[in-house]
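Lesson 9: reading folded outputs for more than one chain in a single document. The general rule is that every protein is listed as its sequence immediately followed by its structure tokens, and records are never interleaved. Here is the first one.
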Amino acid sequence: MPEKSSSSKTPSKKYQPKGLTILYEDEDILVVDKIQGLLTMGTDREKEKTAHFLLNEYAKKGNVRSRNRVFIVHRLDRETSGVLIFAKSEEAKLFLQDNWQDFSKNYVAVVHGKLQEKDGIITSYLLENKAFRVYSVKDPDKGKFSKTGYTVIKESDKFSLLEINLFTGRKHQIRVHLSEKGHPVVGDKIYGKPDREAKRLALHASSLTIYHPYTHKEMSFETDIPLYVSVASFSIVL
């Protein structure tokens, strides 16, 4: 096999995509910090204001050595910010997706209330209905197995700051699991409760550890927790 460089490249500031901070880039992968409010990929209604579209444009204009496109490996909800990785080839995409369950995916979230158990694991079978709302079912033949680990790292009378380990990556998994436990994520308009003080969903993908698709070396990517909001007497950063 010929030698291949996997060293990080310095992105051109001229082509920096709006709403995305490039954390790392080489010939095989592109890792970014996505802002809240930006879709990962296009929908029937929105094609261009997405991380996928912006990074495809970046690859075409800012990096002439690239394969001129990026491949979606996983998704973050529009309302969720944080670490998002794309592949630069079909081979790299398949490697990352095939090994995704073995990677470490950590989030931080602010939820309503105080959890009785300060750390634990939530499991269920998740199913999506015709209204695109996700919920847990008991029948394993109908839902997809989902596993979420959490640890309380700070709390007040009304809110708790959690560190979350995502063992599986189902749609809305964290939000549904915490809501069904009675502690919805602050600012969640679908699975939560009305909260006028919440300016955004208090959920952030804080770190991701993978094996590189070419070198197979372990790599970790982290982001700062974005400034969020002071709610009542509970001052937090998210």
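And here is the second record, again sequence then tokens.
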Amino acid sequence: MEKYLKDALEIRDYAKENNKMFRDSIPLIASENIMSPLAMEMLLTDFGHRYAEGLPHKRYYQGNYWVDLMEEKVTELGKKVFNCPQFDPRPVSGTNANMSVIFGLTKPSETISAPDLSGGGHISAARFGALGFRGLDIRNYPYDPETMTIDPDGAAKVIRESKPKLALFGQSVFLFPAPLKELSDVFRDVGCKVWYDAAHVLGLIAGKKFQDPLREGADVVTGSTHKTLPGPQHGVVLGNTDDETWKKVQRGVFPGVLSNHHLNTMAALGVTLAETMDYGEEYAGKIIENAKAMAEELHSLGIKVLGESRGFTQSHTLVADVSGFGRGKRVSERLESCNIILNKNLLPADNNKNSMDPSGIRIGSQEITRIGFGKSEAREVARIIHRAISTDATEEQIKKEVKELKSPFQDVKFCYGKHEAYQYISLFK
């Protein structure tokens, strides 16, 4: 008797309903994206059932002939996309990649410099995150609260005084490039290694539309592969450093923080990297155009968008102060009820105290761009957001506007044409 079949089918229904919800919604979470059909097909292959500890041709398991060829191809593509001599595609997430660097290049009680959480730093760089759990002495950089960018002079002072083993740059609110070039002399004088967390901007770097951290002084770059790089939920480490440092990083990956490295998502990453070689530059450019268009429109409607002095953003992300409309929690919940999906976000003025009810919201343009939105649609998104939070329009009225705007945009762009992989996802269309 199949006693629990109904539970399995209930889970399947949840997946179908989630697909339906996002089909009819405007997705603006800055840390999400959708894969191409060809990349998605890789998740359903036998790779997802197998183990491959170690590096190609140096495995602890048999049966890895095709896995080794796949991993070598993914590594080759990664080196081409990012023009880097070292590339490790094994981490299973961005934070897992971060932990690889932490374990490989630091020891407990050593000093690390990093962005402050209230200035857009990632949770893994917080005292209650991965850096803190490693037992590191964390020194935060001063930053400009209007642009959420690291202050170069203040950062130079912190680095010179604390002499960190490792200097970390990169944020989860990453509006503008980090001051790597400005601090290059400081890094050299102190003798620290430089680590850049590119999780949010990895696709913009691949598309040559953001800074190039490996050419600006970073020894290693980590990232997740499902934000502006529109791949699977996976992670990578890039390197432009000496062999001994790279060996330490790779030992941090395995056996440091993972065993098997999720072969089906690595294969999906490889497909995404190939598509990035062909489409990445155009896609990255349009992501930034759409983010700027939304920011400008929101600003014109009276919503305070950070970074006005520098054009609001040079990435996929914009951050708005919505304290005049009910604060971040209320606004994000109101928008969710209207099928506009984004997240509440700490602002510098919150001083890390109100993470569950902060003053701000964070908006990302990468997924709407992936399905074909241009600047005119991005501006309309901003106008719908404004109507939703500043007028008496009902949820049903706003949902109707959202559906009308979204309905023509249901196919993934900037990827290879319709492939037989579509047969696998038709169930959820």
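What the second record shows: The two ends are 31 Å apart (CA to CA).
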